[in-house]
Amino acid sequence: MSTTHAVEGVVDAGATSLLRFATAGSVDDGKSTLVGRLLHDSKSVLADQLEAVERASLGRGQETPDLALLTDGLRAEREQGITIDVAYRYFATPRRRFILADTPGHVQYTRNMVTGASTAELAVVLVDARNGVVEQTRRHAAVAALLRVPHVVLAVNKMDLVGYEESVFAAIAEEFTTYAGSLGVPEITAIPISALAGDNVVSPSANMDWYGGPTVLEHLETVPVVADPSDDPARFPVQYVIRPQTAEHPDYRGYAGQIAAGVLRVGDAVTVLPSGRTSTIEGIDALGEAVDVAWAPQSVTVRLADDIDVSRGDLIAPTATAPAVTQDIEATVCHVADRPLTVGQRVLLKHTTRTVKAIVKDIPSRLTLDDLSQHPAPGELAANDIGRVVVRTAEPLALDAYADSRRTGSFLLIDPADGTTLTAGMAGTAFAEAGAEAAPAEGTDDDGWDF
Fold first, then answer.
1. Reported pTM
2. CATH code of residue 348
3. Does 83 have pLDDT greater than 80?
């Protein structure tokens, strides 16, 4: 699948696009079996891998290979027959390359789904055709909506166990589409499948001639995921300052990093945040060569016309569309650590390439994903909890609302004592609402934490 960017002078012809997607579903809905079927039927499994699965299946008394073992790699997962960790797999077809994350279905592993789906462009939510939409199905739809996953596939699995009845599929598809649509999920595609038998996974099913849509793989190969980078304001987090100071380049000073969003051009007027200093892009170097234009997600080195103070963690953005700078952040978060997050807790906040000290000033509410109700003033967030937090940082940050940019609207809260990741945050309000900007604050106390 070729990709063409609507940027003057930029054509990436003949390139094979990459799709990142995650699978989710309740326990025993067949997530790992679906992924195993995708790998097996698309001929993405090595012979020795398949032999190992066949041996393990025979050892468990199964006559046919259990394709779920292709993804359930941990010993505990094999013994229990469940998915515990996020299993990443890489495969490709002639039309597209894929990175998939097989995420757990248990309630206590909600944080693992957040991890797997945080960078996904598509989420496959599995439903057992015998059980329909259950509590965990709604939870996964809500997480996909919170993370702004643009495409959701409802895979109604185990259709062979309900006689391949169209009415069963139609009822489940209508219920899920109504619920996910109310959360703001922009695109929902429902596909009836049997992962165990292979119906509508890679090959069309002869048992469901009433279904005229794509198979799972066909949809994964054709769903549009390449956005025009010129649609988004440019964001360039500085990762490293390059000053070789060689005889050949005595005055070279460049700022290296990956373009998080948008397009940068030589001659653009830019602002360096949080300092607010302005300059003009004098040059852009990509793969050792000077270029006139670069776009997300390229890694480049930017040279500015003025000799101003720029360091790691600064954000370079077009002056006309630069984000607001603030020290007060209100966000929706998923707490991923075993120890709780509490009001008054001192943390480090990592945003793109910048890490600053911060304090949790308030936890206004905790979200109940079952019915989307808000539990006010919970006092703390435990592992797998999703809630609202207010964080005050020691230094100003340039954040976008997560609804506007998943890359520059996200952050992590980290334990300053041991570096453990505590919480994944999404700046702004939940679901499809626009984020509100917070006013900047001033001052710190003597210990540098009570801002």
1. 0.81
2. 2.40.30.10
3. no
